[in-house]
Design brief:
This protein is mostly helical. It has one domain: Up-down Bundle (Four Helix Bundle (Hemerythrin (Met), subunit A)), CATH 1.20.120. The chain contains six helices and two strands. A two-stranded antiparallel ribbon has the order 1-2. The longest helix has 22 residues. The chain starts with a helix and ends in an 11-residue tail after the last helix.
Length: about 160
């Protein structure tokens, strides 16, 4: 396995742990709360779950889910307060798609990074790299929303 693939798998594993930690202690009602019309914690988690399925599909994997993530959480969709999927179910899908995506990248090796994705700004980037950046950005948003919900931050501020 190449260093690039090893690094990618290590970074996505870090995001798995981050997502688990960010959702810990967040209740279902809290997860649906919106601040000033912004997206809810739940919507952002659903959005990153959906966007683990997208590169999986681009790389030739099966993105099937028991939930219609594209309709509810794709780019430019309006956040809703639907009862399903729950926060726990969204975390489960995020992790499941991560495992499938990791297996697909491992299988393809460096060829996975030859497939590109055009960003909204029109820049072509390797598919795994772009979606990893996208995911990490939104996990940062979840960290901010977590504190807005009154939960302790994952990394306490230095005083």
């Amino acid at each position: 396995m190449s260093r690039r693939v090893e690094d990618y798998l290590a970074m996505t594993a870090l995001n798995d742990g981050t997502a688990r930690a960010l959702t810990r202690g967040v209740g279902e009602d809290e997860a649906r709360r919106r601040f000033g019309g912004r997206s809810s914690f739940r919507w952002i988690l659903g959005h990153v779950a959906e966007h683990r399925a997208v590169p999986l599909e681009i790389l030739g994997g099966d993105r099937a889910s028991k939930f219609d993530l594209s309709t509810a959480f794709a780019r430019d969709t309006a956040p809703t307060d639907d009862a399903t999927p729950t926060l726990a179910e969204l975390l489960e899908e995020f992790l499941r798609f991560g495992a499938l995506l990791g297996a697909r990248v491992r299988e393809l090796g460096d060829a996975a990074f030859e497939r590109t994705h055009r960003t909204p700004a029109g820049v072509e980037l390797p598919t795994p790299a772009f979606f990893y950046f996208h995911e990490t950005y939104h996990l940062g948003q979840l960290g901010l929303l977590r504190t807005w919900l009154g939960k302790p931050p994952l990394v306490p501020p230095q005083r």
